[in-house]
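Handout, section B. The chain below has 266 residues.
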Amino acid sequence: MGNGEEQDSRYRVNVVDRAIQVLKAFDQQHPRLTLSEIAARAGLPVSTCLRLLATLRHHGLVSRDEESGRFSLGYEIIALADIARSGGGLVEWARPVMHELCGAFQETVVLSVRSGDFRIDLDQVVGQQNVRRVIALGERKPLYAGAASQVLLSGFSEAELDDYLARVRPVKLAEHTITDPEELRRLIVRIRRDGVVESIQQQSDSGGAGVAAGIFGARDEMVGAIGISVPQYRFTPTLRRTLAPAVKAAADRISRVLGGHGRRIA
């Protein structure tokens, strides 16, 4: 753990940590939960969860269906998410480039960031093809599967990458998910060299494919990834040859706006 993280840990408040555990009990597969389910998923006593839920409900972060007794995330979460998406400027500056890229290929363009050991898709411009990819925004996705995830993983320092590969055990999510740590390490080397990567059916077997490249900030740190998501049957060799340089160029444009250089990580 770096000095900054060590310093942050001294100021953590237990009750806030527990409230966050309660909020993170909800996910795409479990949007509505009973009190006992929340307690089990958060690893907290039922009595503690009940008190935390009462406070979170008061602030609109959690709601409760009076008929079923189940809890769900409140609409105030949406307001906070909108602030998070726009406050850093990444979405604002990326949007014009995303629209141009979507217009050039008529395929869905997605903006993603890293959150801990996961990728979060922040924004998308949906393609205009009759059959097109539409991404579920805000869902946590592992960093070892999919082009955008692997690009974000390539932004780790060597020490961070070693630590990640030592503690995270990749799960076979789809036909082409990479689960071997050494194969993943070799892929990261190639991404750092090329600045762009493609993937086919790594996150699910729904027939998806894509290309992604990294976005860099003023200190040349990776701040996000931009990618194009394509139905696999349209991911032809001809399209792949044109997508990769276009996505890399789009990432470099956003990087320059943010003060970065879109450089490769040696």
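Note. Confidence is low (pLDDT under 50) at residues 1-7. Compare this with the example in section A.
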